[in-house]
């Protein structure tokens, strides 16, 4: 009975949010501005639509989603291949926020999070997701943000917010400088907030620079130092992993966009009295094409992502690449694959069998059928770099069919039907070649 009350309450909360947003006229600005103009009130001057959630320098915001999901031959408790198992759950995430910006150079933000999953083992938690103070010089040449915050850069290949689940935030300090107009550099240091980050722990230090060579070309260069922790990297007793990368993104003409991002990793993994050096590499190459055909827009997408592998991580140098499990779209929509480090399955004896390092090829596209409806279809093929003797490197092929209906700019309904065609790796390991089915229906509101 208590479980049913929780589910009903969650659905009612988000439906209330959706109803409020549906009443607002389309075209309202979604999200929360980092810094509001002095005086803060959003009026109708200049033809702008008044924001009903803006009260002078105070902005009220809410980001909420409810997702019902169902899977077969998979387990939501640990996100592993489980032949013959069926699993269903309701996931709820509600983030209310307040942003106060008394001047153009000062802002404070507080954002809470209620995150809950209802299945065989219910989980329910309320935490502070973000809470920071931000100030900048009048020249905007330097700014500082201190407190709990997200760190999102580039295409989120290395730094993202895990937006499909409980998010990813840090207790951190970030200093931003802009010595030249096309150049911006951020320096940051912080700790993972374990309760908001799927159990990730450890510290993160980094510098991230972006140079905008023009409207159609930009380059990022970054260096990250990660101390590792459960669910993140090699899970050593003591670990220091440096990730040095570059990202080049731009357009060729009006129809083609590209992105290239190589990353090299080095450092040391310490397990009891054994010391192992880390030498790994990974990255991705993406190409997006907008054919501009017909009345409504559509895009095509092709990508190749890769991570080096290691046949035996307990001996010698670690060569398995790890990008954080932050919900990058390059590895699909089903969470069968978490990151490019590889995939693990259990054999009949209950032993873990790990295929290390992945090559992932993605091909897909989407089209706006109407102004409110978008349909997308993509496929991801995965193959391991290293696998135990006698075990296939063929991981499988994932397909994702997603339908999005926008009630307004703030409220969307997303329906998805997905299938993971398991490769020989799973059959060799578990003795079963059953495919994984997954579907969900998600209501999302952001304003």
Structure description:
- The chain has 447 residues and is mainly beta.
- Helix content is 6%, strand content 56%.
- The protein has helices at 2-23, 424-430, and strands at residues 54-55, 58-75, 80-103, 106-118, 123-136, 142-149, 170-180, 183-192, 203-214, 217-226, 238-252, 256-271, 274-289, 298-307, 342-346, 352-368, 373-386, 394-406, 411-422, 436-446.
- It has an 18-stranded antiparallel beta barrel.
- It is globular.
- The model is unreliable at 1-47 and 230-236 (pLDDT under 50).
Arithmetic mean of pLDDT: 84
Flag low-confidence runs.
1-47, 230-236
- Structural class by SSE content: mainly beta
- Please give the share of residues in helix: under 10%
Q: N- to C-terminal separation? A: 32 Å
Order of H and E elements: HEEEEEEEEEEEEEEEEEEEHE
Q: What's the total helix number?
A: 2
Largest sheet at a glance? Answer: 18 strands, antiparallel, barrel
